[in-house]
Amino acid sequence: MSGHNKWSQIKHKKGASDAKRAKLFAKLLRAISIAAKTEANPQFNPRLRSAVETARENLVPSDNIEKAINKASEQKDLSEMTIEAYGPEGIAIIIQAVTDNTNRTISEVKKILSDHEAKFANPGSVLWAFDAPVAGNPEAQWKAKFPQKVSENAQQKMEKLLEALDEHDDVQDIFTNIE
User: Fold this and answer.
1) Measuring CA to CA, how many Å separate 75 from each of 24, 67, 101, 111?
2) Cα–chain center distance at 137
3) DSSP string of 140-158, one letter each residue
4) Is residue 55 within 8 Å of residue 28, measured between CB atoms?
5) For residue 11, what pLDDT is reported?
6) What is the pLDDT of residue 40?
7) For 107-138, what is each residue's pLDDT tens digit?
8) Are residues 126 and 153 both part of a single domain?
9) 160 and 88, same structural domain?
10) I need a surface site. Which of 80, 91, 105, 163 has the fewest CB within 10 A?
11) Does 84 lie in the same domain as 69?
12) How far is CA 127 from CA 13, 74, 77, 87, 121, in A?
């Protein structure tokens, strides 16, 4: 009668939810580290303040937030990058990532894109289709200038692609021009 033990069921559910939570914490702490590179004081750094507030809303322990800020002032090898791509039916995609190894991240994102019928684009070939976020506003996001309607099939493919990209540890945000 395997599988009927209540503890086993709890253990599997808790393990899955803990893994999701750990992945979210890692992304939030990486965003804090990047924001803290320029100024470690949240009072003078609105981007850091916003990242810390988001982390606190998601119940990231204060000790972990402080460690991420301190680590950022010591460690300068994390970098932000913007990756441009085209998905099914020519959907424009902007991927923002934070990484310590840009070559690794680019090759892994290229692999995910090719597995989901999308292709890597040259820098600048997708950005024209979006309005850039307003500087100084940490909540600002890329907005599509020309929203595009897509078929149901392309919508399903994009959902799978977005899930795969979101599972990658280095990927922070993904923006598309889907209507």
Assistant:
1) 21, 12, 13, 28
2) 18
3) ---EESS-B---HHHHHHH
4) yes
5) 76
6) 82
7) 999 999 999 989 999 998 998 888 888 665 55
8) yes
9) yes
10) 163
11) no
12) 41, 33, 26, 14, 10
Percent of the chain surpassing pLDDT 70: 92
- In angstroms, the CA 174 to CA 168 distance is 11
Q: Which two tokens stand for residue 128?
A: 């024209």
Tell me what pLDDT residue 139 has: 61
Q: Measuring CA to CA, how many Å separate 32 from each of 66, 78, 126?
A: 9, 11, 27
Encoded tokens for 111: 């692999």
CB-CB neighbours of 53 under 10 Å? 12
| Three-state secondary-structure class, residue 68 | helix
Query: Is there a single domain that holds both residue 98 and residue 44?
Result: no
Domain termination residue (choose one: 19, 53, 74): 74
Average pLDDT over residues 173-177: 89
How many domains, the chain?
Answer: 2
- Helix, strand and coil content of the chain, in percent to the nearest 5, comes to 50, 15, 30
